[in-house]
Design goal:
The structure is a homodimer of 351-residue chains. Chain A has 351 residues and is of the alpha/beta class. Chain A has one domain (13-347): TIM Barrel (Alpha-Beta Barrel). Chain A has 16 helices and 9 strands. A 7-stranded parallel sheet of chain A has the order 1-4-5-6-7-8-9. In chain A, strand 6, helix 13 (254-257) and strand 7 form a beta-alpha-beta unit. In chain A, helix 15 packs across helix 16. The radius of gyration of chain A is 19 Å and the shape is globular.
Chain lengths: 351, 351
C-alpha cells in the first residue's frame, strides 16, 4: 500500500476533497441552498427585488450565510446570478423572475457593444459580498464563487428570456456561427477575469455552471460550448483554487469533459456517479448527485437514496456530496438537515 | 459473408427497417411532422380548437396526411395527443395549449375512478382516424400509431399541467409509491389495449413516447418507469407490428432499455447513434436523431449534419431517420424537403 497523504488541517474539507486530499468526512453542500425553501430567505426577498439583492453586499452576504447557520454545511456559495456579470458588461436586463434582456444580442454589432468586464469597476458589489462572507464564515466552511458557462449565458443573451428548450439560441448558433464565436470568446474572456477576481476576493473554489450546454448535440457541444470552457480554464492558469465544472445533462459528452483541466465535475441526478467515474477516471473529484425529488420521500427512503449516491461515489474520497440540481422551493428544510447530518455520519473517517 | 435476406416489396420501408429487412433507402419521417410549421396545418387549426381536432376524424386524418402530400416521407403518424386516451378514461382535461387537468390524480381513490379504456367505446374517433388515413395513404408509406408511456402520462395527471421539471410528479412518486404503482399499472393496461386497437385499425408500427422518464434518476427509472413499459410490451405479445420506444433524454439508462423487447429505439439529439449502438447492440433498429436546430443552418451545413447522423447510424440498415425531438414551429418547410430528399439520395441502395 502507498502511504496516504496527510490531511491538511487548515484546508476546508471541500477544498481538500476537490484536491484529492484526505478529509474527515465527505463534504456536502446544496445547489441553491440559499433560496426560497428557507423562510429566512423569503423574509429578505419579501422586501427586496432579486436584482437589487444581488447588488447589495449586506443582503447578499446575509442570504449566502443563512443556510450555513441552519445546517452543518461544508460550503457557502456566493448569492448572485449567472447574469450579473452581463449587467456589468452593459446589458440592460431585469429578472421576471428569470433574466429578461431588453435588446437580445444577435449581430456582430451587438457583440461589439459588450464591454469587457473589469470586475472591480463593473461588479464591485459581488467582490464586496465575497469579502464580507469570507470574513464571517468559519474556517472549515469553504466559500464557492461562480459564473455561468459562455454558452449558457449566451443562450439567455440571444433568446432574450428563459426558455425550456432555448430553440432561438440553438437555431442562432446554427445560422450565425461567426457571431456565436465572437460572443462566446467575449464571454469566456470576461468570465475568466470575473472568476479570478472572486478568487482574489476570497473565494476558495470556483464553479462554472454549464446549465444549457447539454441542449447542444454532441458535435455542437464539441465545436461550440467546449472550446469556450477551455478558453476560460487556460486564462485561469495560476489561480490556485479548484475549479468545479457543473455538467448539467451532459452525460453523452462526459468523455469530452474528461479532458478538461478541472479538479471537480458536478453531475446531475440522471445517471449514477459510478457511470460518471467510468468515463471521467479516478483523478477527478465528482460532485453530486442526489435527485432533488428524493427530499420528498419518507426519512428512511431518503437515507437509502443518500446511501446509494455514496456507494456510487466509491471509496477513494474524491466526492463532494450535493443534489444533482438546485433544491426545489417546496422542500422541507428539515429534510435538508437530515441529509447533511446523514452524509457526515455515514462518511466519518476513523482516526 | 452471409446471404442477405431479400427485401419484401410489399412492406413499407419503415416497417422493413424496423424488422431488420433490406430497404431501398433509409426511411425517414419527422416527429411532429403534422404541425404548426406547415401553413396548411395552421389553416386547419385557425378554425378548430386542438382537442376538437383530435376528436374529429375527418380533420385529424387531413392533418395527418398533409406532410405526406408535401414531402417524400416514409411514414405518417396519427395526429392525436398522448392525453387523448386519458380523456377516454373519464378525466376532464383541456389543452391550454398543453394538457390541463381539472382534478389532478393524487390519491388511490382518484386512481380507482379512472375507467379502464375500451378503445372502440371510449375513443372511437381515434380508430376511425387510423382507418381513414390508412385508406388514403400510398402502400409504401407506413402509418404509425402511438401512445405516451405510463410515467409520462402520469406526470401530467399528477401535476395537473405541463411543467419544465415535473417537480410535483417527481416528488409525488417519492412520497406516494403505492398510489404511483396503481396509477402506472392502470395506465399500462389501458395503453396496451389502446395500442392494440390502433394496430387492428390499420397502424403498421406503434410508438411509445417516453417523454419524461428521463427526468427520473437511474434507480427510479428502473423501479418506476421501466416496469410499466415492460407490462405494456408483455400485453402486446401477438400484435404483429413493430414497436418503437422513444427514449427521450434517457442516455444514462440505455443499458436498461437494451433489455426491452422492442424492435426500434428512438433517440434524442443529445448523443450520437454510434454511442447508442454500443449500448443497444446490433439487433435493434435505431430511430433518430438530428438536432431540430440543424434545420436552421445553411443548406450545406444541414447536409453535413445529416451525413453525420447517417455515418453514426452505421451501415447495417437498421436505421430510421428522424429528428431527435419534435420539429420546431419556426422551421422552414423547404428545409424539411431538403432533409427528406437528402436522406433518400444519400442512402439509395444499389440494385
Amino acid at each position: 500500500m502507498n502511504a496516504q497523504p496527510k490531511a491538511k488541517l487548515d484546508l476546508p474539507p471541500l477544498v481538500a476533497a476537490a484536491r484529492g486530499l484526505p478529509t474527515p468526512h465527505t463534504p456536502v453542500w446544496i445547489m441553491r441552498q440559499a433560496g426560497r425553501y428557507l423562510p429566512e430567505y423569503r423574509k429578505v426577498r419579501a422586501g427586496t427585488e432579486f436584482g437589487a439583492l444581488t447588488r447589495t453586499p449586506e443582503l447578499a452576504a446575509e442570504v449566502t450565510l443563512q443556510p450555513v447557520r441552519r445546517f452543518n454545511l461544508d460550503a457557502a456559495i456566493l448569492f448572485s446570478d449567472i447574469m450579473v456579470p452581463v449587467e456589468g458588461m452593459g446589458v440592460d436586463l431585469a429578472y421576471a423572475p428569470g433574466p429578461v434582456i431588453a435588446s437580445p444580442v444577435r449581430t456582430m454589432a451587438d457583440v461589439n457593444k459588450l464591454r469587457p468586464l473589469v470586475p472591480e469597476r463593473d461588479v464591485p458589489y459581488v467582490l464586496e459580498t465575497v469579502r464580507r462572507v469570507r470574513a464571517e464564515l468559519p474556517a472549515h466552511v469553504a466559500l464557492i464563487g461562480f459564473a455561468g458557462s459562455p454558452f449558457t449565458v449566451a443562450s439567455y443573451l440571444v433568446s432574450g428570456k428563459p426558455s425550456k428548450e432555448f430553440a432561438t439560441a440553438r437555431a442562432f448558433v446554427q445560422s450565425e456561427p461567426a457571431v456565436t464565436k465572437a460572443l462566446l470568446d467575449h464571454l469566456a474572456d470576461s468570465t475568466a477575469d470575473y472568476l479570478r477576481a472572486q478568487a482574489e476576493a476570497g473565494a476558495q473554489a470556483l464553479m462554472l455552471f454549464e446549465s444549457w450546454g447539454g441542449l447542444l448535440g454532441r458535435n455542437s457541444f464539441a465545436q461550440i460550448a467546449l472550446p469556450s470552457v477551455q478558453r476560460i480554464i487556460a486564462k485561469l492558469k495560476g489561480v490556485d483554487v479548484p475549479l468545479i465544472y457543473f455538467a448539467n445533462n451532459c452525460w453523452t459528452v462526459l468523455d469530452l469533459i474528461a479532458g478538461l483541466d478541472v479538479q471537480v465535475v458536478g453531475l446531475d441526478w440522471r445517471g449514477s456517479l459510478a457511470q460518471a467515474r467510468t468515463v471521467l477516471g479516478k483523478d477527478k473529484t465528482l460532485q453530486g448527485n442526489l435527485d432533488p425529488a428524493a427530499l420528498f420521500a419518507p426519512p428512511e427512503i431518503l437515507e437509502r437514496s443518500i446511501d446509494d449516491v455514496l456507494a456510487d461515489a466509491g471509496s477513494n474520497g474524491r466526492h463532494i456530496f450535493n443534489l444533482g440540481h438546485g433544491i426545489w422551493p417546496e422542500t422541507d428544510p428539515d429534510a435538508v438537515a437530515r441529509l447533511v447530518d446523514h452524509v457526515h455520519a455515514r462518511t466519518a473517517r476513523k482516526a
